[in-house]
Design a protein that fits this description.
This protein has eight helices and ten strands. It is an alpha/beta fold. It has a single domain, classed as Glucose Oxidase, domain 1 (3-Layer(bba) Sandwich), CATH 3.50.30.40. Strands 1, 2, 3, 4, 5, 6, 9 and 10 form an eight-stranded mixed sheet that branches. Strands 7-8 form a two-stranded antiparallel ribbon. β7 and β8 form a beta hairpin. α1 packs parallel to α6 and α2 packs across α6. The N and C termini lie far apart (about 70 Å). About 40% of the residues are buried.
Amino acid sequence: MSPNYVVRDFERADPDVVAGLGEAGVATVHEAYGRRGLMDPGIRPIQQDRTVAGSAVTVECAPGDNIMIHAAVEVCRPGDLMVVTTTGPSTHGMFGDLLATSLMARGVVGLVIEAGVRDTSTLREMGFPVWSRVIHSQGTVKETPGSVNVPIECAGQAVAPGDVLVADDDGVVVVARIEASDVVEAARARLEKEESSRSRLETGELGLDIYGLRGKLEDLGVRWIDRTDDR
């Protein structure tokens, strides 16, 4: 049997970098990161119009067993975002309003979990944002050891403690902590470029011309004709 650990401390991302990535949002960060880091689309928000970003506290649990989530609460700090995976598929409701109360007391900004959650109406009322694989009321046990703050895989992405997660209505993206500063600068540059394009589009200019797509279509063999009779 492999050893299990609760790692109390790890290096977190710079708070200003985390905030900058959160301001950019998932889609922009994903593009600025070379189209990397995006969790699979089965991880969905239980709420709308919320964006969070935080340093990852990672939790590895056995399916249907949430004892390690309870263990992880103790090591959370303000600004952290909890990321939970299971060692096998699980649709159990592994997280609900009581655990959310504990995390909010520690300043945790949200939860991403590759399993189920329940008490979703109450979670929304509390204002605690969650992204989960499923919503399911099935209960859990507290019997099987796992680990906290070790590298995990969640929804197709590797997540190490301290990596930055950004989550919003478009999904969840993971940025490695050591690359986060570069990515936030690339994201800001992308936002500036998009704002320039938006201004031009608002005047009626076409994306075909702004993005140089007209010539590309011609190179691909697309022709412009006035009527189908002209073919």
